[in-house]
Amino acid sequence: MLGPVILAASRSDRMRRLISAAPGTKQVVDRFIPGETVGDIVPIIEDLTGRGLELTMDVVGEDITTPEQAAAARDAYLELIDRIKDLELGPKVEMSVKLSMFGQALEHGHELALKNVRPVVEAAAAIGTTVTLDAEDHTTLDSMFAIHEELRKDFPQTGCVIQAYLFRTEADARRLAANGSRVRLVKGAYKEPAEVAYQNKHEIDKAYVRVLRVLMQGDGYPMIGSHDPRLISIGQELARTAGRKLDEYEFQMLYGIRSDEHLCLAAEGHRMRVYTAFGTDWYGYFMRRLAEKPANLRFFLRSMVSKG
């Protein structure tokens, strides 16, 4: 399977240099990451919200090695929030953050990440929106969930992400649903060992449905993070069975993938949120998009050949 190989490459400096220099890279990166600066991304925000879509914004970059870089990541989000405030689009645009960007892996990283992310959550709340904490590899999750719990004391709308392929996730979903959290469910996009995660696509899909059923039957706000038409249909049926109204859950998909379906779901009255990343440190995010779907890799390779 190519997925694990690509995920391993996402941690390779040599592969980073090779792929960054490849002639077709920019064309494919632009498909998933439509800008490097806040100024670049403002027209995208205006266009998508004008089409009836909502957004969750991700400033890409995970390889933080100093407290100064973590502070810069915080400031990048604060700049973004200021621009969204100017656009008066707060209720339509939330933030997604990876705590690794805020220093989670550094010395005293848990405390540092909480210190850096809190101003972002506060600023988001001040313009009528919120923040979702992205899930990363399984070794970081206890820290992420603890920070999530701490933030929700003052900002109960703060969301988090859980990954269906991890064995622990069904138990996490029951705890989070009981607490009324906003929870985005995804399949998972990190290379995880067989001791902690399902490796087979069929098993991951079954786990996704089990966990989504828990969320739909709970007291929280489920966010269905999937491009899989079958899982989207199952999500709609689970919502109906649970008696949920259309504004009591939402769908989330990545910018650049199944864009027509984004608009179709919104036209049907569903809340449809587009996960939109921007920034210069795109490599890790880009490689996970390739690993998630073979068609993305084929598109990339064709671009390299055509530009070579």
Q: How would you describe the overall organization of this protein?
A:
- The protein is α/β, with parallel strands linked by helices.
- Helices cover 53% and strands 13% of the residues.
- It has helices at 2-9, 13-21, 25-32, 38-50, 67-87, 109-126, 141-154, 169-178, 201-217, 229-241, 259-267, 283-292, 294-307, and strands at 54-59, 93-97, 131-133, 159-163, 182-186, 221-225, 250-254, 272-278.
- Strand 7 (250-254), helix 11 and strand 8 (272-278) form a beta-alpha-beta unit.
- Helix 1 (2-9) packs antiparallel against helix 12 (283-292), helix 9 (201-217) runs parallel beside helix 10 (229-241) and helix 12 (283-292) crosses helix 13.
- The two termini are 26 Å apart.
Classify the helix fraction into a percent range. Answer: 40-55%
Q: Strand arrangement, largest sheet?
A: 1-2-3-4-5-6-7-8
Parts with pLDDT < 50 across at least 5 consecutive residues: 303-308
- Multimeric status of the protein: single chain
- Distance between the ends: 26 Å
Which secondary-structure class do the elements indicate?
alpha/beta
Number of DSSP E strands: 8
Return Rg in Å.
18 Å
The arrangement of helices and strands along the chain is HHHHEHEHEHEHEHEHEHEHH
**Strand percentage, roughly?**
5-15%
Shape verdict: globular
SS element count, helices: 13
Mean pLDDT across the residues is 89
Summarize the biggest pleated sheet: 8 strands, parallel, barrel
